[in-house]
Amino acid sequence: MIYYVKRLLSYVKEYKLVSIFTPIFIILEVLLEVAIPMLMGKMVDVGIATGDINYVIKMGVLMVLMALGALVFGSLSAGFGSKAAMGFAKNVRMALFEKIENFSFKNTDKFTTPSLVTRLTQDITYLQQAYMMSLRMMMRSPTMLVTATIMAIGISGELSLILLLAIPLLATSLAIIALKTYPRFIEMLKRYDALNASAQENLIAIRVVKAFVRRDYERKKFNESAEGVKKAQLRAEKILILTSPIMQLIMYGCIVAVALIGGGKIAVGGMESGALMSFFSYITSVLMSLMMISMVFINMVLSAASAKRVVEVLDEVPAIDENTDSKIEVLDGSVVFDSVNFSYTDDPNNLTLTDIDLHIKSGETIGIIGGSGSGKTSLVQLIPRLYDVYSGRVLVGGHDVREYSTEALRESIGMVMQKNVLFSGTIRDNLLWGKPDATQQELEEAAKAACAHDFIMGFEKGYETDLGQGGVNVSGGQKQRLCIARALLKKPKILILDDSTSAVDTATDASILEAFRTQFAGVTKFIIAQRIHSVMDADRIIVLNEGRIDAVGTHEELLKNNLIYQEVYHSQQKGVA
After folding, report:
1. Considering the chain, what is the average pLDDT of its residues?
2. Is 369's pLDDT higher than 50?
3. pTM higher than 0.85 for the full model?
4. Is residue 98 exposed (0-12), middle (13-18) or buried (19+ Cβ within 10 Å)?
């Protein structure tokens, strides 16, 4: 836990000064508050007992001034503490987000998206609350505890023994509760991850849910996740709720004991009534401090679980070394796979790709076909180094991809993935991801090559049309064409299309491929497709089967010599007929 605290405190950064001022103002506030009961006792025992009105007024004015001073210092500490806690949470959240941005696909797969969302939101909120309490209550409560105890001992050492018995009893109880609840809070946060996963999946696929009339099923599934969170919360809270009754029992027990013993001392003249009033104030302050400590303690137990989860992500080493010092630029679009083996799990007995050897010249068009799970997507994802090979090498432009900085490598590669992703904003905003400083002419040229310009101009606002979240205002085929245009706008040396024309008609598909042949002749193109028609004019076609290369050749060669290609071709021809 100490490591987690040190690790997270490094993100206080520019909020160190307000973090330092907060406890200083808290201490000043507490010192003034602690002095007030002492003055009240003197007012009773000296001023009221002797009838000295001037002394009573003097003490009263002094008490009011101290109360006002405590109010000012309290307000300042609250303001500074809030600023420090919110700034700390902002810094941690930004550091976590930047870390996630540097993750490879492998790292993201390890944590899962819903879990990362929970850590970015709920876990950091818990840490913000914990930091706020640490600055204020964790300073206020111990300071009040110590100073009020000292004042109480000064009034009556005998009565103060009651506190010395109560404090260890409470500390032991809290320690036992902490040990029991911590693992239960860890389990509760895992349940939150599952709840977020269920909600996220449902919202992303809401059209499918409605189309298949599966609302009842999804409600049931979400209810099960929510029920799991509820049960995990109850399991943790049913131990934590013991804190309050234990606290109340010790607190009222102390008050009763002080009343009995103090009342007896007053009866025999061993103590003044004003002193007993002051002692009651101090013992109440001590016990309230203990109660606040118990509240902080509860929050710390919860935030400890969150701290562990957040630091896990911050300490995660990206699976891919960015190699930011490299100055090598990609000179051409040649690609070589040299004895490549690849596994998502780094398990040599569970290889996704096995013994891949390919030499592709710059400017070649390479078609890739194969059944589901044959490794088509895995193969092309190694080119921009979205994953690293298990063994062997992938060379781009004559250099191992690991020799480039990821930025230089990926800037030279345009990739349209299986899942077409568009972002909130206009069509122009989305296309500019390919080249932020692109001119209108460049936008239109890329859109025309992707057969997207005509339908874009069919919208009332043209390129300024708002796509909505995830591109809900366009069809699947239009999404694909916009994603292709975005990739073409980069003017890449290598273009990868991962089944990216599956939602367009064959005529549009043919037009896009023709644009590739004429306008982007010098670009190396990898076209993964299910339709033979999309790859039959490629310079070479790779046939993958269960992670291995089954054959490489032209359409005519494969149609003559390769059984898998023949079966796919004839089945599609039969479908056309």
Report:
1. 84
2. yes
3. no
4. exposed
- The model's pLDDT over 246-282, given as tens digits with 9 standing for 90+, comes to 877 877 787 787 777 777 777 666 666 667 777 777 7
User: For residue range 46-96, what is the model confidence (pLDDT) as tens digits?
Assistant: 777 677 788 778 888 888 898 899 899 989 999 999 999 999 999 999 999
- DSSP for 418-444, please give it: SS----SSBHHHHHTTT-TT--HHHHH
Any residues with CB less than 8 A from the CB of 303 and at least 6 apart, and which?
126, 127, 129, 130
Give the integer Cα–Cα distance in Å for 313 and 101. 11
Amino acid letter for position 333: G
* Distance (Å, whole) CA 136 – CA 503: 59
**Which residues have CB under 8 Å from 242's CB, separation 6+?**
173, 177
Residue 355, H or E segment: strand 353-360
Q: How far apart are CA 95 and CA 10, in angstroms?
A: 11
User: Which sign does the torsion angle of CA 9, 11, 14, 15 carry?
Assistant: negative
Can you state the angle between helices 137-155 and 16-42, rounded to 10 degrees? 20
Contact 262, 156 (CB under 8 A): yes
